Structure formats: structure tokens, C-alpha cells
């Protein structure tokens, strides 16, 4: 359904994906990005205004959905960032090995179909000591909420074009060769618990420490 994917889904992400509790965390973690930055699945560009343009030399904004890129271009006008769009999937990052200082993923690892390939690709493009900044939705530690997440996942998967509620993102990041450097977690108010358990923090690729 190209109309849903290119127009309705970007509209939903743009209008539902940035309530105040989420914005506050973006404000806290995105300014940690520095140097040459890759953001995977930039969506409608909700993070753009939170980058510090004095610390970010260039932002590669990877996003395979052209409807999202249209919205992101509007957000770009609010910043002084030097942004280059890459309209390819995050499982095939078209950048050289060891060239990024920071990779950012917010609510993309919980959506991307090939998460293992995406995390491997992130490790590949990061420089030694480069950081992954993440803010992701996923599997609650509470078994009762997990049951609801399993029930509700197919609906979310359809509405939000591939969104998973039951991925254990920190475990997948670690399995992909990273060490979590710093992480916080919790249910973010506003949305019901099954669709609001999040982790946010930073990770470093183990082979590169
Ligand atoms: C829930 S939205 C999050 C958007 C944005 N990062 C944010 O924080 O608001 C998930 C994003 O991942 C993108 N996405 C889906 N599949 C992808 C893939 N294979 N590679 C990269 N991005 C993908 C979607 O197009 C969408 O923009």
C-alpha cells in the first residue's frame, strides 16, 4: 500500500512520535552526537533540532521512505546542519568502514526488518571509539505487559510499518558486538505500557575499544 506507506505512516510518526516525554529524552541524548554522524531511519527529522551544529560536521540522514524525507526536509530548515540524505535501507549502509564518529538510532532498531545486519553495519562504519546513541522501544521486563505486547504487536506492526514491541534491543545491541556504555530505561508516560517501554543510552563497538 504505497499511499499508506508514503503519506499516512509519515503523518502518524510525525504527529504521534514526539510527545513531551520522548522530546525530553531526545533533548538529553542527541546533543552527545559529534563529528561525522549517521542517523539511521531519520523519519520526519524529529532529532534534527537537538543536534549541536557546532559539534556536528556532517549528518548523513539515512531514510528509505521518501514520504519521511519530504517531512525531514522541512525540519532541516530549522537547523544549520550540513545534511546529506541516503535513501537506502539501514541493512545496507552505503558508507566506508570506520568513517563515522557517531551513529544515532531512535525508534529505528525497533522497526528495521534486518536488525542483525543493521547493527553489524553500524559497528562497521563507526570509527574506533565511535559511539552508538540509541533510544528504542521494546520488550517490557514485566511478564503481564509482555503478554499484552505479544497480542498488540501485529496491529502496531501494520500501523507503524514494521514496528516490533517485543524486541529486546539492548540484548541485540550486545549480541551485535557492542558494549553498553550507559543506559536508562522505563515506561514513557502518555502511551499505554505495552507500547511505551523504552531504553536510551550509548554503546561502543567491543572490537574497537
Ligand atoms: C518509528 S519511525 C522513527 C523515526 C525517527 N527516527 C524518530 O525518532 O522519530 C521508524 C523509521 O525507520 C525507518 N525504517 C524502516 N525500515 C527501515 C530500514 N530498513 N532502514 C532504515 N530505516 C528504516 C522508517 O521509514 C521510519 O522512518
Q: Would you mind describing this structure in some detail?
A:
This protein is an alpha/beta fold and 209 residues long. The model has no long low-confidence stretch (mean pLDDT 95). It contains 6 helices and 7 strands. The chain has a 7-stranded mixed sheet with strand order 3-2-1-4-5-7-6. The N and C termini lie far apart (44 Å). The structure holds S-adenosylmethionine. S-adenosylmethionine binds next to loops. Residues 13, 17, 40-43, 46, 62-65, 68, 89-91, 106-108, 111-113, 160, 162-163 line the site of S-adenosylmethionine.
Element layout with pairings:
Blueprint: H1 2-16, H2 20-29, E1 35-40, E2 56-62, H3 66-76, E3 83-86, E4 100-106, H4 115-125, E5 126-137, H5 143-159, H6 169-175, E6 178-187, E7 197-205
Parallel strand pairs: 1-2, 1-4, 2-3, 4-5
Antiparallel strand pairs: 5-7, 6-7
Bound molecules: S-adenosylmethionine (SAM).
- Provide the list of bound ligands, each named once: S-adenosylmethionine
Overall outline: globular
Helix content: 25-40%
Major beta sheet summary: 7 strands, mixed
pLDDT average, as an integer? 95
Number of helices: 6
Q: Spell the H/E element sequence.
A: HHEEHEEHEHHEE
Helices and strands: which structural class?
alpha/beta
Given as residue ranges, the uncertain stretches (5+ residues, pLDDT < 50) are none
